[in-house]
Design a protein that fits this description.
two-stranded antiparallel ribbon, 6-stranded mixed β-sheet, about 35% strand, about 20% helix, 8 strands, alpha/beta, D-tyrosyl-trna(Tyr) Deacylase, Chain: A
Length: about 150
């Protein structure tokens, strides 16, 4: 599972011109589900993101998590995070999970985030979405569950 986490002042996602999800100060999470991923990866990634200390404390140091600031979260599925661009100019997405599994794990990840963080909105799995955000910092973190150590569970 891969995620791009962006600290935002606000973010929203629209489908067919209608806003389907939005958040205020907090995190925009772009989530890619890989073939072979399971609920264990979703839980690990969720816990890691909820605890990431990327918000400033009173001294301006990144020392607070999205939970610490009572922040909001917007989760958007993005299978293109699994792109393979090694050969030629057209990426392949063979590493991405099949849609049924990816949708299940995306929804499972969202439910895990709702347990960790109060306000969680999401996009529409498989839809063409327009994502708007005001990046705060900018702060952008890339996470891959393959790189996270199990001791972080």
């Amino acid at each position: 599972m891969k995620a791009v986490i962006q600290r935002v002042a606000n973010a929203s996602v629209c489908v067919d011109g209608a806003t389907v999800g939005a958040c205020g100060k907090g995190l925009l999470i772009l989530l890619g589900v890989a073939a072979g991923d399971s609920e264990a990866e979703a839980e690990l990634l969720c816990r890691k993101i909820a605890a990431l200390r990327i918000f400033p404390d009173d001294d301006g140091k990144m020392n607070r998590s999205v939970r610490d600031i009572d922040g909001e979260v917007l989760v958007v599925s993005q299978f293109t995070l699994l792109a393979n661009c090694r050969h030629g100019n057209r990426p392949d997405f063979f590493a991405a999970a099949a849609p049924d599994l990816a949708n299940h794990l995306y929804e499972y990840f969202v439910s895990c985030m709702k347990r960790e963080v109060g306000e969680v909105a999401c996009g529409v799995f498989g839809a063409h979405m327009e994502v708007s955000l005001l990046n705060d910092g900018p702060v952008t973190i890339l996470l891959d569950t393959g790189d996270l150590q199990t001791k972080n569970k």
